[in-house]
Amino acid sequence: MPIVKVDKDPLVLHNDSVRFKLRATIPAGLVSEENNYTLLPEYQYGEGALPLEEIKVDESDLAGPGQAVEIIRNMSFPYMEGMDRGELRIKGLMEEVETGKAFTTPYMTLATGIISTVNLARVGQFAPGENIPEVGAYMSYDDDFMNMAAHELNYYFSKNAAQANPSSFNEDFVGELKSLVEKGEEINRIIVLGMASPDEGDYNSLAATRAQVAEQQVRVQLKKMGYEGDVESIDIVLQRKEPDWLLFRHLLRTFEGIDMKERDKYFDVIYADDTYESKVEQLKEIPSYNRFSKEKFGEMQLAKVMVMMAQDRRSDPEISAMANMYINGTATGDELTEAELARAATFNPGLKDKQLIYEAMLKKHGSALAYNNLGVVYLNQAHRMIKISDKNNKVNQAMRLFRMSNEINESPQARHNMGQAYLMWGDYGAAYLEISKANALAKDNPEFQRFNEGKRGALDIIRGDYKLATLRLDKAPETATNMFNKGLAYFLAEEYGQAAIAFEESALSNMEFGYAFYGLALVASQNSDEERLYENLKKAVQRSPYLKLRAATDLEFRDYFEEQAYIEAIK
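The structure corresponding to this sequence follows.
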């Protein structure tokens, strides 16, 4: 029989895999010119087993005639749910070279179970019976974003035309401009963006001419309406806008009668690295294109006119009251500017109310803030869904909104949120890249960087870089979750004194957070402090059904499983 040992029993989860060193001595005689020998390791758990890398030995591995074969091999296997209470075992297979006959040894157990303490890292997940944490980063309204406070008007043109269009198509433009003039307030600035639809020729020339015509119409109408200020002195800025796939995507979202698969065909084209002209030709090949262009492209044949007034914003109570009228269905939402809608959303904690408000912002053709914040609402709604398919669909919708937000204005918030979305899919590598990008984008926003470092430090724990995790979590806000993750990083780095301090701070921050007490129980176990172990474990399992189940099988506490005090503590 060969002698086989591993360096860990139980095994330990590190990063996303279980790694160990196997040492084997195969006695003289089992390997020779006549015999080959193979070691067959596997990890058995539940009702199945995961075969591991075979170790084949033949005469070329012999140091000399009649000598034993010594093998040292670094091995690993991916961790999967349910593996904690399995066993690593191995058997030998000897084959006669000439006859092909094979003889196997009985299985030998090398290690029992896996310590998966790293899985305790909190990255926004929760177990049944636990409070559902809020995830994601909302963007906040900033007075510097003047375009958000602007009143946005649309001046429409006939297809392929750039002449003034006094038809009924522009009655809303005239009416809305008149309402602004009647307020009697000074106009600070006007920004005009010319646009064209994909089925119109020469985008750049047409869009530029439309912007000039819209500027003339604004001045003409202001004079007609009796604007009290000097019309000629108003700062009107004509901006050149690239082909606007943002509005295209908005119209696509509101285009009924096609399924998600058909919409994806459009997204595949517009996200491709290709010229505008080439994309237009590819769009024409999509079966629903003719109907889509007929129903929606007229809404892209326009100039956007953003009027910025020297006005006092409505008071918060006024904004809140008008937002509630909209939520209750007694107002259209057009009464509030985009900035006021953004402000109103902060007064409404309910996800459904926030969704309605941010969707109203998108109806105004939206902003980076509107796309990002609606995406955050979707992430938190996904968190509360039971069906996996519903949850994944909602996360996917959120990711699209974050991409749209970044296309308008790349932000640390949208990057962070994309990372959080990947976390909800269990893709830790992609999540780490996005959250790291968020940190780079937030170099002028130290408060956001601290928030972001909390999530990045938690991911460092999962990635197995415990020291780096402690450094990052040192910078993070001192929330119960961040302090627990910091304690966990110190614990996994075997710095138990520092771990205990962080776990205690986590408990003091939120006495209902069971993980903090579980962490203190882990430290007590390492210190053989049974009194503190039982005391903290009892507090942990009282606060979390998940931790109660985990404590019953967590191999960190294996030395105490048979103790009556332990059994009482986790009842």
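The radius of gyration is 32 Å.
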